[in-house]
Amino acid sequence: MDENLLSLSALQHYAYCPRQFALIHTEQVWADNFFTAQGNVLHERVDSGLPEQRGNVRSERAVEVASVAHGIKGKMDLLEIEALPDGTKRYFPVEYKRGKPKLADWDRIQLCAQALCLEDMHGVPVTEGAIWYWEVRRREPVAIDSVLRQATVNVIADARALLLSQKTPPPTLNKSLCKACSLHDLCMPDALRADKSESYVSSMLTGQS
Ligand code: SF4
User: Is the CB of residue 16 less than 8 Å from the CB of residue 76?
Assistant: First the structure.
């Protein structure tokens, strides 16, 4: 697969926090915390399953996908392929997540990117998928609609631009994201925010910008 393609997980990192994306993909730092370690165990379990056939639906795990048109690639947790009576196939991506359903879009963007890959590879529309959340043991249906598609295309473009710039943005203003972030100790968001406000106060006092 083309090494220049952005990974699906990188899109999720960018959608979560552009600084997290830059720390991982530009500065190449990584740290496991409790949340990522638990997520890795979940994905190992999901990926180790064998393909299954139930009626007219085949379930495949750890499926490699890519879209050259969108410049993305990655591995899907689960792909359900339904054989329809007219001889066509319906592709339904399922992503497994450790936590619970979120209002923010970062999990859905990763799923939508998988749908874009499937569309590119198989030439059929993918209009729905689902995210299975471990904490609540529930499958959340996700419509791959025009709003989510546009958000995903924007994230792909913005993430690629940030990668090319080789810059690392300042910490997110959403401090609740930092609490669950695997890079919290390496990123030191509070220290950087404090430093920024100190520089701001000092620039106000000295009249420099
Ligand atoms: S700690 Fe906060 S600012 Fe730093 S990478 Fe994580 S989410 Fe972003």
Answer: no
Q: How many CA atoms lie within 13 A of 116 on its CB side?
A: 26
Question: Mean pLDDT across the stretch 101-115?
Answer: 89
Question: Contact 100/136 with Cβ under 8 angstroms?
Answer: yes
Do the domain assignments include residue 187?
A: no
| Average of per-residue pLDDT across 16-40 | 77
d(CA 79, CA 60): 5
Q: How far is the centre of ligand 1, averaged over its atoms, from the C-alpha of 188 (Å)?
A: 8
Tally the domains of the chain.
Answer: 1
Q: What is the pLDDT of residues 143-197, one digit of tens each?
A: 999 999 999 999 999 999 999 999 999 999 999 999 989 899 999 999 888 876 6
Q: Is 183 in the pocket of ligand 1 (CB under 6 A)?
A: yes
Tell me if 175 is assigned to some domain. Answer: no
- Asked whether residue 177 is assigned to any structural domain, the reply reads no
- Select from 27, 187, 195 the residue to mutate for testing ligand 1; criterion: most ligand atoms less than 8 Å from CB: 187
22 CB less than 6 Å from ligand 1? no
CATH code of the domain in which 18 resides: 3.90.320
Is residue 189 lining ligand 1, measured as CB closer than 6 Å? yes
Residue range(s) defining the domain that contains residue 94: 6-169
Is residue 157 situated within a structural domain? yes
The confidence score (pLDDT) of residue 164 equals 95
